[in-house]
Design brief:
- The protein is built from seven helices and four strands; from the N terminus they run H-H-H-H-H-E-E-H-H-E-E.
- The protein is α+β, with helices and mostly antiparallel strands.
- It has a single domain, classed as Winged helix-like DNA-binding domain superfamily/Winged helix DNA-binding domain (Arc Repressor Mutant, subunit A, Orthogonal Bundle).
- The strands form two sheets. Strands 1-2 form a two-stranded antiparallel ribbon. The chain has a two-stranded antiparallel sheet with strand order 3-4.
- The C terminus is likely disordered.
Length: 129
Amino acid sequence: MTSEREHNPSVCPLFHHAVELIGRRWTGAILMVLLQGASRFTDIVHAVPGLSDRLLSERLKELEAEGIVTRVVHPETPVRIEYHLTEKGRDLSGVAEAVTGWAERWVSTCPSTEVEEAAPERELVVAAS
């Protein structure tokens, strides 16, 4: 006898949440930069071409709320803020390596055109140079 699941395939809610979280626009690139050791806001924003301060701030808050990133405030003058991956965040290194390997094998080109900032619910818009 076959199970009901075989006749009614569905996506695991945990998988769906994880893919939606790390698959959001800019999040993968931010995670890669953090995995490579960057910790200051300006270092992250400069390492990801086209990423605005506003979107970086938004994504870091989302990752912090999920327990993937921790925000450390150093009470100095001027105040220094660093972002670090938590154990949960560092555990994404295998995922990042797998996606990198897949991209190297299957993605033939990287877009080198100007990227227009899109609203979160819109698709990425690429303008021809």
